[in-house]
């Protein structure tokens, strides 16, 4: 038996509860994992609250991340006792996910848990930190360097934004953080931001081209914000787009691309190949400290996750939320 958050749906709408389930309810897979920790992402909050079309089939256990210990395996790659990690692959959307004491999974979705991190620390990073690392790596691959000037991070108080700031600052970049919560300025500067701007500067319709301000950006917001970020990026700069908190539209023009040679790089973390995942987590192990993880993270139990999902969507959650199955 194991406890899990279960999302179900009938003619009256969606129902979300914490249930005790028999192992026979677990879906197909070649590895069964005893989950130590999961985390609460924006996508998980949309699934739990029903405010976004995340769940593809019902009933569903949400949770796009998990870290745990292999309980049983029918493949050679993983043996009982191995510490493993999962991000994405449609888990929590079309396959039962990590907000559960147990998960049965496809071994191809797993990577070994990096030795640099405990299960709690790995989930403090989760998809948010992993996506931030992929975004920073994309800027590096496009030739963006600290010497070229400031870099912008939008959605700065969220999980992706918080980690993007910490990673970029650690690499020597001068970071501008954009947020709707200016009262969190001290927190953002503590992560490494050199300056903080109000998101209102970027969130309204703007010009196709604006004054050149930053050499690169990590954007988790989309819509008008991303359009304005592109319009303000310096010649030859690059923007990594990894989220759509404001919207999935892009009310922009080709002007930044053909007049300033700006590159827009889309960041997918869900279906990323194994080698990319391992490299991103290796870099995270090099760049993040335990103190930073503690600053960005708070821990809750599984029974608290449903209420916390509503807080996350309402903008009342700073940084990352780890869900500890033993709590």
Automatic annotation (TrEMBL):
CDD domains to which the protein is assigned, alphabetical: MDR_yhdh
Native species: Halomonas urmiana
Matching InterPro entries: Acrylyl-CoA_reductase_AcuI, ADH-like_C, ADH-like_N, ER, GroES-like_sf, NAD(P)-bd_dom_sf, Zn-ADH-like_protein
The protein's name: Oxidoreductase
Residue stretches making up the Enoyl reductase (ER) domain: 13-323
GO molecular function, one term: acryloyl-CoA reductase (NADPH) activity
């Amino acid at each position: 038996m194991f406890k899990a958050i279960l999302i179900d749906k009938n003619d009256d709408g969606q129902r979300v509860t914490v249930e005790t389930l028999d192992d026979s309810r677990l879906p197909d897979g070649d590895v069964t994992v005893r989950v130590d920790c999961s985390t609460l992402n924006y996508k998980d909050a949309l699934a739990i609250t029903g405010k976004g079309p995340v769940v593809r089939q019902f009933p569903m256990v949400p949770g796009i991340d998990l870290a745990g210990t292999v309980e049983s395996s029918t493949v050679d790659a993983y043996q009982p006792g191995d510490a493993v990690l999962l991000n994405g692959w449609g888990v929590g959307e079309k396959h039962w996910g990590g907000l559960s004491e147990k998960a049965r999974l496809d071994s191809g979705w797993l990577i070994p848990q990096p030795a640099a991190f405990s299960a709690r620390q790995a989930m403090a990073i989760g998809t948010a930190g992993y996506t931030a690392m992929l975004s920073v790596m994309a800027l590096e691959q496009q030739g963006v360097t600290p010497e070229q000037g400031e870099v912008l991070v939008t959605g700065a108080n969220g999980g992706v934004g918080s980690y993007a700031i910490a990673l970029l600052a650690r690499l020597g970049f001068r970071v501008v953080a954009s947020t709707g919560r200016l009262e969190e300025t001290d927190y953002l500067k503590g992560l490494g931001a050199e300056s903080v701007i109000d998101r209102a500067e970027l969130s309204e319709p703007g010009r196709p081209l604006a004054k050149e301000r930053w050499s690169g950006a990590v954007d988790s917001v989309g819509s008008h914000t991303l359009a304005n970020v592109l319009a303000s990026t310096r010649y030859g700069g690059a923007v990594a787009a990894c989220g759509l908190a404001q919207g999935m539209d892009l009310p922009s023009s080709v002007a930044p691309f053909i007049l300033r040679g700006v590159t827009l790089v889309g960041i997918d973390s869900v279906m990323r190949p194994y080698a990319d995942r391992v490299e991103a987590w290796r870099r995270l192990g090099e760049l993040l400290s335990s103190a930073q993880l503690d600053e960005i993270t708070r821990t809750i139990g599984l029974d608290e996750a449903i209420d916390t999902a509503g807080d996350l969507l309402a903008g009342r959650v700073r940084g990352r939320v780890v869900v500890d199955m033993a709590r």
